């Protein structure tokens, strides 16, 4: 294990947590609804309930974008959707087409699953090329690594390549495949992209205010969770 990241994660695990303002909590959360069984009525209710709070953004699946955009209306709330989700093994042509459709539909950002196989092969140049192709569409990207499937070297190498390509954030996981965010993985990604201008998004299994605060201490800049409203209410 990376000693620096390990020490940073352990410090985050043991740290005393100060009270935090609810708006500050909401401001780092991408409140998320990515359940494949979500109906249009559930998407609308998710949007309506979420708009009560100043979340960083709202995240829905590709087929829910049109419904979500209509429900958001004139509110200045960023809308995010996903590409290559959750497996990442779609061809670049498919990912590009999916991203083009989302951009036309009015998303503010895209969270995409990188080609995990390329990371396993340590073909970081190819990962960089994939990211640059998607960035050509002009929308900020968060690249999902799915840390639970990668070795230490694969995580660090992928994060550095993706940061070098210009993605806005590297993201720990989808929450659907191989576990969620850990303090150690967040710290490892934080140090891998330090000084590049790229941030870290922690996602997967984040259900409490304590989870959020400790992941922030470990180096997370953004938190992705389907428990955003519950977490903000904890801070009240």
Please give a structural write-up.
It is a single chain. With 236 residues, the protein is α/β, with parallel strands linked by helices. The chain has a single domain, classed as Aldolase class I (TIM Barrel). 46% of the residues lie in helices and 15% in strands. The chain contains eleven helices and eight strands. Strands 1-2-3-4-5-6-7-8 form an eight-stranded parallel beta barrel, surrounded by seven helices. Helix 8 (152-165) links the parallel strand 5 and strand 6 (169-171). The relative contact order is 0.17.
Topology:
Blueprint: H1 3-14, H2 22-26, E1 29-33, H3 40-50, E2 57-60, H4 65-72, E3 79-83, H5 92-105, E4 109-113, H6 116-120, H7 124-135, E5 141-144, H8 152-165, E6 169-171, H9 183-193, E7 199-203, H10 209-218, E8 222-225, H11 228-234
Q: Which CATH C-level class is it?
A: Alpha Beta
Radius of gyration, whole Å = 17 Å
Helix share of residues?
Answer: 40-55%
The CATH superfamily bears the name Aldolase class I
Strand content: 5-15%
Number of helices: 11
- The number of domains is 1
Q: Output mean pLDDT.
A: 96
Task: Tell me the distance between the termini.
Answer: 37 Å
Number of strands: 8
Order of helices and strands: HHEHEHEHEHHEHEHEHEH
Main sheet attributes: strand count, strand direction, barrel closure:
8 strands, parallel, barrel
- Principal-axis shape equals globular
CATH topology: TIM Barrel
Physical arrangement of strands within the biggest beta sheet: 1-2-3-4-5-6-7-8
Low-confidence stretches: none
**Class by SSE composition:** alpha/beta
CATH architecture: Alpha-Beta Barrel
């Amino acid at each position: 294990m990376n000693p620096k990241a390990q020490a940073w994660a352990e410090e985050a695990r043991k740290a005393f947590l100060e009270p935090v303002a609810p708006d500050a909590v909401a401001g780092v959360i991408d409140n998320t609804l990515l359940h494949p069984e979500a109906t249009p009525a559930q998407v609308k209710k998710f949007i309506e309930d979420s708009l009560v709070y100043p979340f960083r953004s709202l995240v829905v699946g590709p087929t829910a974008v049109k419904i979500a955009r209509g429900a958001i209306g004139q509110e200045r709330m960023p809308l995010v959707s996903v590409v290559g989700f959750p497996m990442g093994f779609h061809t670049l042509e498919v990912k590009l087409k999916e991203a083009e459709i989302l951009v036309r539909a009015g998303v503010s950002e895209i969270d995409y699953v990188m080609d995990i196989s390329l990371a396993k092969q340590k073909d970081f140049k190819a990962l960089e090329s994939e990211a640059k192709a998607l960035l050509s569409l002009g929308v900020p990207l968060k690249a999902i690594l799915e840390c639970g499937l990668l070795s230490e070297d694969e995580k660090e190498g992928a994060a550095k390549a993706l940061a070098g390509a210009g993605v806005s954030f590297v993201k720990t996981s989808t929450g659907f495949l191989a576990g969620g965010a850990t303090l150690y993985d967040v710290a490892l990604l934080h140090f891998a992209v330090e000084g590049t201008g790229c941030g870290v998004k922690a996602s997967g299994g984040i259900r409490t205010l304590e989870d959020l605060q400790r992941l922030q201490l470990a180096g997370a800049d953004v938190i992705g969770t389907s428990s955003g409203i519950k977490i903000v209410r904890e801070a009240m």
